[in-house]
Amino acid sequence: MTKFLIQRLVQLIIVLFLISLIVFGLIHVAGDPVALMMPIGSTQEEIEIFRESLGLNKPFLVQYWIFFQNMLQDDFGQSFRYNSAALPIVLERLPATFELAFASMIVATIISVPLGIWSATRRNSFLDLFITGGSVLGKAMPNFWLGIMLILLFSVSFQIFPVSGRGSIEHLILPAVTLGTAVAATMTRLIRSSMLEVLNQDYVRTAKSKGLRDFFVIYKHAFRNTLIPVITIIALQVSTLVSGALITETVFAWPGLGQLIVQAVNGRDMAIVQAAVFVVATIVVLINLITDLLYRVIDPRIKFK
């Protein structure tokens, strides 16, 4: 276990180093950073002075080394829009994104677990076909369209929930449902397929032959053994929720990391973009590490080498 943890931590450091290189390189691939940040109509002299002040007149590897050294000191540069250090601004938005991601995962779990089990235990029935079809529809439905429809229905027509912003539980419901729907669709289909495989195992048939109640057989024996793939997909979806909430946060004006990234890209605030992308990548890597450790907790038979 200790050896495995050390190996994963070493891999984590290597991955984060590569991510820092990619993040820095993508800014240059997108075009001249100075030209992106300078206002339209700037003279060539002003551009060169600004380039020299940022150290962008140096070779690429020298620029990256300076960026990497600053990054180790939690310095991703100054935000031109906020006239402040970029990293604290990004970290300030994280709680709102975590709140939305957590609420969305609760919505997705409440929807997907019972639907996936019902679909598997009633295979090829009308209910199974209805749930499967609904899962495909939920996965194919664009988040921005669903969000707008929910706003028109529950905020404009019935005036039950606020249109946008963050403050109370009412503000959280519509964006959480919007973001959780696609996740629920994916999880429902996975739970169904995993349950179908487990329900055909000998130990499940043995439990049924002993006269155990269906509820006990399904939830105690069958569902517990589907948790490994379910935990995997939940971890992947949490990463998606944290990193992919750009559209939902923009539609609902939710003041999270996704909205900040959209504003930074539109405002050519490259320091914010670099800091935000690196923070999101770090979160994703850590979630994957925690997921690997959870496997052993769920199933002690799993051995780490």
Features:
305 residues, mainly alpha, MetI-like fold, 2 domains, two-stranded antiparallel sheet, 2 strands
Describe this structure in words.
This protein has 14 helices and two strands, in the order ααααββαααααααααα. It is mainly α. A two-stranded antiparallel ribbon has the order 1-2. The relative contact order is 0.14.
The CATH superfamily of the largest domain is known as MetI-like
Number of strands: 2
Distance between the termini: 7 Å
User: How would you write the strand order of the largest sheet?
Assistant: 1-2
Strand content: under 5%
The CATH class of the largest domain turns out to be Mainly Alpha
| Average pLDDT taken over every residue | 81
Q: Tell me the count of domains.
A: 2
CATH architecture of the largest domain: Orthogonal Bundle
The profile of the biggest β sheet is: 2 strands, antiparallel
Gross morphology is: globular
- Which structural class best describes the helix and strand composition? mainly alpha
Provide the succession of SSEs.
Answer: HHHHEEHHHHHHHHHH
Tell me the radius of gyration.
24 Å
CATH topology of the largest domain: MetI-like fold
Number of helices: 14
Q: Summarize the amount of helix as a percent range.
A: over 70%
Contiguous uncertain segments of 5+ residues: none
Q: Strands, helices and their partners?
A:
Elements lengths: L1 H28 L3 H5 L6 H11 L5 H13 L5 E2 L4 E2 H36 L4 H15 L2 H15 L11 H31 L2 H8 L4 H9 L4 H17 L2 H6 L5 H10 L3 H29 L7
